[in-house]
Write a structure and sequence with these properties.
- The protein is mainly alpha-helical.
- It folds into four domains: about 140 residues, no CATH class; about 60 residues, no CATH class; about 60 residues, no CATH class; about 110 residues, Serine Threonine Protein Phosphatase 5, Tetratricopeptide repeat.
- Strands 1-2-3-4 form a four-stranded mixed beta sheet, with helices on one face.
- A hairpin with a 2-residue loop joins strand 3 and strand 4.
- The longest helix is centred in the N-terminal third of the chain and has 28 residues.
- The radius of gyration is 32 Å and the shape is elongated.
- The structure holds zinc ion.
């Protein structure tokens, strides 16, 4: 556990605020080029401005039912979620945006007062121009899409919210490129602070790039014992990206063991967003068919291992044409799709797939299945023809027609009896 830096605490709007003494380094730095009075004004405005920014975050958290706490430290401030909070990407997006939003509002109010009033008091004039610079300037820099600043976090949460999955490499690239540009600019301006800002972006972007999780296999190659191993690893690391990956793996291990409640616990304790595959699998254990479809149907969302689940969901919702379209696009699904459609009583649609599979593969089994569909559709002549085709194509399992309930309507026809070698 780390020692807390010396400081003092107070509470505002029911939100605890802690100010570390190191925070006052920031205003003290102003003494380099201001007198004590000017530095004091600067100090007060930095304090108020950072507080307003953090309260933007904090009040947005409260509105989302998280209990926030604020800390002001040597490099500014941050607003912390309670340890148990798992904000969704949409929540993080707006909560992060609320900080610079509050700062910009304060800055624009100061700008309006500066513009539309006249003051002869030099202290007030200085305070107003400081307020504009600190709030407008800072908010804009803070909104650049670079980690760990708010703009980077907004990009991170916003892309997750928009697409339902993490985009670590996009965020990493944006931070590295932005950071490098700022470092270059800082050199030309000889600005230490700006250089530090850019270097942070480069560093965090580089880390994020390397930590970007690999796409998860649907069935992780982990055995039972490794659940404990994963939990140990989770406890041992504080790296957010790594924790997200471990949490996802833990959920998969539990899902595979049939421990659905445990899988759900792993997901709710997880930082970041679970993969679409995992979300869909969990929705399926809830019988939330609509959610499965919502997650997996968008182009490119379903992986090869997710598609059978999407297919089943479409058939449950009686979206047979979409199921057929999916099976035509991914022919490895066609055989199981025709079976599932048949079991769902969608004989016409099942027939459609059996026929196209027979034409595609030339296998007699599909002709046999066509015959079953045709019997259910009452097209008995066609069913007989299909059975003959199955024999012509060399279907080895033709003998099951002797007992197959689906073929009962045509079994006693002489052509079929002849086909089956039962003729006398
Ligand atoms: Zn912020």
């Amino acid at each position: 556990m780390n020692e807390r830096a010396p400081g003092f605490e107070f509470s505002l709007f029911g939100i605890p605020v802690r100010v570390e003494l190191w925070f006052f380094i920031l205003p003290l730095l102003a003494l380099q080029n201001r007198d004590v009075r000017g530095a004091l004004i600067w100090g007060v405005l930095v304090f108020v401005s950072i507080l307003v920014h953090e309260f933007g975050h904090a009040l947005a958290m409260k509105a989302n039912h998280f209990a926030p706490s604020i800390t002001l430290h040597a490099l500014g401030g941050f607003t912390r979620y309670p340890d148990t909070a798992r904000p969704t990407p949409k929540q993080s997006f707006f909560i992060t945006l609320a900080g610079p939003g509050a700062g910009l509002t304060l800055g624009l109010i100061a700008l309006a007062i500066e513009r539309f009033t006249t003051t002869t008091n030099p202290d007030i004039a200085l305070a107003l121009s400081d307020a504009v610079w600190i709030n407008v300037g800072w908010s804009i820099v803070n909104l650049l899409p670079i980690l760990p600043w708010d703009g980077g976090l907004i990009l991170d949460a916003g892309t997750q919210w928009a697409t339902g999955r993490r985009h670590d490499r996009v965020v990493a690239l944006s931070s590295m490129i932005g950071g490098a540009l700022i470092v270059a600019f800082a050199f030309s301006q000889r600005s230490m602070l700006l250089g530090y800002f850019g270097a942070m972006g480069l560093f965090q972007g580089y880390n994020r790039w390397n930590a970007a999780p690999q796409p998860m296999p649907a069935m992780p190659l982990r055995t039972d014992d490794e659940e404990k191993q994963l939990q140990l690893e989770l406890m041992a690391t504080s790296d957010v990206v790594k924790r997200a990956r471990l949490g996802e793996q833990l959920a998969w291990v539990r899902l595979r063991k049939g421990d659905f409640a445990g899988a759900r616990r792993a997901v709710s304790a997880m930082e970041g967003v679970p993969s679409v595959s995992l979300q869909a699998r969990l929705a399926a254990t809830d019988n939330d068919v609509d959610k499965v479809i919502r997650l997996l149907e968008p182009a490119g969302a379903a992986t090869e291992t997710d598609r059978p689940l999407l297919l089943s969901a479409l058939i449950v919702k009686e979206r047979y044409d979409d199921a057929i379209a999916l099976a035509r696009k991914h022919v490895d699904l066609a055989a199981s799709a025709s079976t599932k459609l048949f079991e769902a009583g969608a004989y016409a649609q099942s027939l459609e797939l059996c026929t196209s599979e027979r034409l595609r593969t030339g296998q007699g089994v599909h002709a046999y299945n066509e015959a079953c569909c045709l019997c259910h559709l009452g097209r008995l002549e066609d069913a007989v023809t299909a059975l003959q085709k199955a024999k012509t194509l060399g279907f080895a399992g033709l003998a099951q027609a002797k007992t197959d309930e689906d073929l009962a309507p045509v079994r006693n026809r002489p052509e079929v009896q002849a086909l089956l070698g039962l003729a006398n």
